[in-house]
Design goal:
CATH architecture of one domain: Sandwich
Helix content: 25-40%
Largest sheet: 5 strands, mixed
Number of strands: 9
Radius of gyration: 24 Å
Distance between the termini: 12 Å
CATH superfamily of one domain: Cupredoxins -  blue copper proteins
CATH class of one domain: Mainly Beta
Shape: elongated
Oligomer: single chain
Structural class: alpha+beta
Length: 151
């Protein structure tokens, strides 16, 4: 019984280390060309969150429906502006992973400071690793509970 417990504990430790440490294949190998139409109006972007994979060649098509608007991408130092009814394009390679704020780069009215969005490059692997470790910890604690409660 003690050998089985040691073997199971060792296996759980190895699985935990594999989840926490080993690298996960990223999405850069599947890089594609993406065109995303972004409508800017009344202090908001639609869609407000843009999701792409690392390495994707992204073209943003900015369309303003009311007044002059712009998009500035924090972290990429890129900007595009569009007049009402016109479409302007900005093309770049998503070579930086993370979450980047989109801000309107043209003062467009009273609520201009609140006109923001988000560019997410890559998957949130941290949440998946944390979830897997939590499940592993729950399985380990159930196993330990069963060992202590059995006669």
């Amino acid at each position: 019984m003690v050998k089985a417990f040691r073997w199971q504990t060792g296996l759980l430790i190895i699985l935990g280390l594999m989840i926490a440490v080993f690298p996960v294949e990223g999405g850069a190998s599947g890089a594609v060309e993406r065109t995303i139409r972004v409508e800017a109006s009344s202090f908001q972007y639609s869609p407000a969150v843009l999701r792409v994979n690392p390495g994707d060649r992204v073209t943003l098509e900015l369309v303003s429906t009311d007044v002059v608007h712009g998009i500035y991408i924090d972290g990429y130092d890129l900007e595009v502006k569009a007049d009402p009814g016109q479409t302007r394009r900005l093309t770049f390679v998503a070579d930086k992973e993370g979450s980047f704020r989109l801000r309107c780069s043209v003062t467009c009215g009273a609520f201009h400071p609140f006109m923001t969005g988000k560019l997410e490059v890559g998957q949130n692997l941290l949440i998946w690793r944390a979830t897997a470790l939590a499940v592993l910890a729950a399985v380990a604690s159930l196993g330990m509970f069963r060992k202590t409660s059995s006669p």
